[in-house]
Amino acid sequence: MSRITAQDLATRLGGELEHCPPDRPISEVRPLDEAHAGSVSFLANPKYAAKALGSGAGLILADPSADLGDRPVLRVSNPYWAFAQAIGWLHPEPEPDWGGTPVHPTATLGAGCRVAPGATVGARSVLGAGCVLHPGVHVGDDCVLGEGCELFSGVVLYRRTRLGRNVRIHANSVLGSDGYGYVLVDGRHQKVPQVGWVEVGDEAEIGACVTVDRGVLGPTRIGADTKVDNQVQVGHNVQVGEHCLLVSQTGISGSTKLGDYVTLAGKVGVVGHIEIGSRSIVGGNSVVAKSLPEGSFVTGFPARPHREWTESQAALNRLPRLLKQLRAKA
């Protein structure tokens, strides 16, 4: 991480400081509910104003109209774009540390690890005892794998990915790629840096061709004993609970939270920034557009209680016959 002062940040962003000493050191970007005196955070949506008022952030990026009382604020015209730039300055992407050998000299391999020809292990990564890397696997820098993990051919772990014990990941899956984050500035889509990581709990299994994006700042999590089918997409900052089932071609948008024992059947779509309660079931080809309480059973587009959806479909199927009868009576 880098370090700059509040005034340095104001100068770079062309903003105006309020209630903040110009020489306050700022060392990192954090969400409002995790920020501390050395952090900068941001408020782009007024519905999170209460969270901003209660935040411990040393500096909050906000637009000129935001009323944050005596909180330390940097007024900018586009807080989200300012947030993206601050990430790039304070959390620069490190240069890859290639060691010239398939296993970097600073990597640590536990007893009984097997690394196949064509597999690579990055700098400072740690593999627990008995891990198996098949041909073509790449484990990036600063990754941690618990004992007994098995990664099949073509698996890629971006830097800082963390796996628990006995995790299995099937061919060509990618964990830790950049989340899909952009902000429109002057007619162009500017990238929001993604500097978080991915965490996978003990005994989880991830199918082939699965993609799990790293978080913007913190982790994207897959809970212990969760089973992910082939061709599933998990967006940045998603939190998946324990013992969940994510079936093929499901897509979960960013910052959504799933409780424990949630089942998402095939081709389910989930919008971002919602919560799905524990032990909920979402039927195949459904789209979840709002938060669901614990124990829900929903289907359809948009997803609604299963009985309600089946009744509406039955009524819809009767429409052609009813129209035919009406025309016959006209």
TrEMBL record:
Catalytic residues of the enzyme: H236 (proton acceptor)
Enzyme Commission (EC) number: 2.3.1.191
SUPFAM superfamilies: Trimeric LpxA-like enzymes
This protein's record includes keyword Lipid biosynthesis: yes
Domain UDP-3-O-[3-hydroxymyristoyl] glucosamine N-acyltransferase non-repeat region: 23-87
Keyword annotations from UniProtKB, A to Z: Acyltransferase, Lipid A biosynthesis, Lipid biosynthesis, Lipid metabolism, Repeat, Transferase
Keyword Nucleus on entry: no
Pathway: Bacterial outer membrane biogenesis; LPS lipid A biosynthesis
Enzymatic reactions: a UDP-3-O-[(3R)-3-hydroxyacyl]-alpha-D-glucosamine + a (3R)-hydroxyacyl-[ACP] = a UDP-2-N,3-O-bis[(3R)-3-hydroxyacyl]-alpha-D-glucosamine + holo-[ACP] + H(+)
Pfam families reported in the protein's UniProt record: Hexapep, LpxD
PANTHER family: UDP-3-O-ACYLGLUCOSAMINE N-ACYLTRANSFERASE, UDP-3-O-ACYLGLUCOSAMINE N-ACYLTRANSFERASE 1, MITOCHONDRIAL-RELATED
Family: Belongs to the transferase hexapeptide repeat family. LpxD subfamily.
HAMAP family (UniProt xref): LpxD
Subunit structure: Homotrimer.
NCBIfam families: lipid_A_lpxD, PRK00892.1
Function: Catalyzes the N-acylation of UDP-3-O-acylglucosamine using 3-hydroxyacyl-ACP as the acyl donor. Is involved in the biosynthesis of lipid A, a phosphorylated glycolipid that anchors the lipopolysaccharide to the outer membrane of the cell.
Name this protein carries in UniProt: UDP-3-O-acylglucosamine N-acyltransferase
Source organism (scientific name): Geothrix rubra
Primary gene name: lpxD
